[in-house]
Write a structure and sequence with these properties.
The protein has 446 residues and is mostly helical. Helix content is 61%, strand content 6%. The protein folds into 2 domains: 107 residues, Periplasmic binding protein-like II (D-Maltodextrin-Binding Protein, domain 2); 213 residues, no CATH class. The chain has a 4-stranded mixed β-sheet with strand order 2-1-3-4. α10 packs antiparallel against α13 and α12 packs across α13. The two termini are 20 Å apart.
């Protein structure tokens, strides 16, 4: 046991002192915090206001298109030919052309001419408002009460909230969007870390084998001890890096909240539009005077209702158990070959279940309680990914216990298989190994 501990210490210290580990430990949190902070910061910045020259041959839109911080509209009394001819002599950013035969199928003739491409938000703003105004004009020209239609739309609009109930009839308050987000992130991290650190184990074994260092090491320790020390040592490296990422990302996000967002009203992230009244009948874009909570703050509130300790515990378990199972197989592959090109024939059968689990994760999200979701969360080669997809939606305790138990037993079995292959392959050089020969190694005595 002391020898395994020494190997674990050697593997751990050797890897955490590498420049690549230090760089990735620093860059990872910066990138993850940036993904959360940068979009919010950019959404708070005011885009350059675009001035649009409106050539309205129909005469229905003059001075009634709502302006905003994105765009303002000018309505000169000129033809589209003159507007296009003098376009580059003006300061207008674009020309909005509305044909005369608008209500008789001319909607498809509405066009925008520009010098430089307008922002997507400005184009969406113009398109949405024109569509709403055309809709209201059609209603008015057909003697339909616009306000009645709008009131009906407002009263019939609702948000369907999902709430899970436990066996005692109490609400669990699970938000579907938040649960889906946690599922996808957890599944990706499990998939990423198993591949990343499992391949590190394989390459480490191959490097020691090709450099003939392993011959010296095996004079003092048994092959199984060397393999387990390497696997556990790399696992601790991965766990250390993950925990550092969580701590540093949380710290960076907290610092950004009190510095970058200082003095900014987060509620301004969602744009409010002015109330524009047109005549006696039309009331475009009538926005109620209410303070709406930003989506980021809503998500954070909903996140508090999730069982975060359970999610974190299961993530750590499936990360470690899944990694230990796969890395034992990766170590066996590394011991059986002399170079990385020869690993392909053995890597494919090992990695296919993990890749397949990540692919079907999106289908499992659609129905986390389906038979497919159940069986793939029990099968050990796919359970680290699929069970983490199901956890945020709620999994019966017996299913979770069964999945964990099967995964632990499979880890023990795969470690035994890997140990048998490792002890023979680690000292074998210059021979092309086949699947048939690997099978023979399992039954060698000694």
């Amino acid at each position: 046991m002391n020898k395994i501990a020494l190997i674990i210490k050697r593997e751990y210290l050797t890897r955490v002192k590498k420049k690549s580990f230090i760089i990735m430990t620093i860059l990872g949190p910066i990138l993850m915090a940036g993904i959360g902070v940068v979009p919010i910061y950019l959404s708070m910045q005011k885009a350059e206001k675009q001035t649009i020259e409106v050539i309205d041959e129909s005469g229905l839109f003059v001075n009634i298109i709502p302006e905003s911080d994105l765009v303002n509209f000018v309505y000169p009394k000129i033809t589209i030919q003159d507007a296009r001819a003098d376009f580059f002599k003006t300061d207008y950013n674009a020309i909005l052309y509305i044909p005369k035969v608008l209500l008789s199928g001319g909607q498809h003739g509405i066009r925008i001419f520009y010098k430089k491409q307008l922002s997507a938000s400005a184009l969406n703003y113009i398109s949405d408002h024109l569509s709403r105004i055309i809709f209201d004009i059609i209603l008015v020209t057909n003697n339909v009460n616009v306000n009645f239609i709008k009131n009906a739309k407002e009263k019939s609009t609702f948000t369907l909230k999902t709430t899970q109930i436990d066996e005692e009839g109490k609400d669990k308050n699970k938000n579907m969007a938040v649960a889906i987000g946690i599922s996808l992130v957890s599944a990706f991290l499990i998939y990423f870390f198993i591949f990343l650190y499992g391949v590190q184990v394989m390459r480490g074994v191959m490097e020691e084998k090709t450099n003939r260092i392993v011959e010296v090491i095996l004079s003092s320790v048994k092959p199984f001890q060397l393999m387990m020390g390497k696997i556990v040592g790399v696992a601790l490296v991965g766990l250390t890096q993950f925990l550092l990422w969580v701590i540093l990302t949380t710290t960076l996000y907290s610092v950004a909240t009190v510095t970058v967002f200082k003095g900014m009203d987060l509620k301004q992230i969602q744009q409010k539009e002015q109330v524009i009244k047109i005549g006696a009948n039309l009331d475009y874009n009538n926005m109620n005077n209410f303070e709406e909570t930003p989506e980021a703050m809503k998500i954070w509130d909903e996140l508090q209702t999730m069982n975060l300790p359970e999610i974190l515990f299961t993530f750590l378990f499936y990360f470690l158990a899944g990694y230990l199972m796969y890395s034992a197989l990766f170590a066996a592959v590394g011991s059986a070959v002399d170079n990385e090109a020869d690993t392909q024939q053995f890597m494919l059968p090992i990695t296919i279940p993990l890749i397949f689990a990540f692919i079907i994760a999106q289908n499992v999200i659609q129905d986390p309680s389906s038979p497919m979701a159940f069986w793939f969360s029990i099968i050990p080669l796919t359970s680290p990914v699929i069970m983490m997809v199901r956890i945020p939606f709620g999994v019966p305790p017996w299913e979770l216990a069964l999945s964990m138990g099967v995964l632990v037993l499979t880890f023990i079995f795969t470690t035994w298989i890997a140990g048998r292959i490792y002890r023979t392959g680690i000292l074998m050089y210059g021979k092309k190994v086949t699947w048939k020969e690997l099978g023979k190694w399992l039954f060698y005595k000694g």
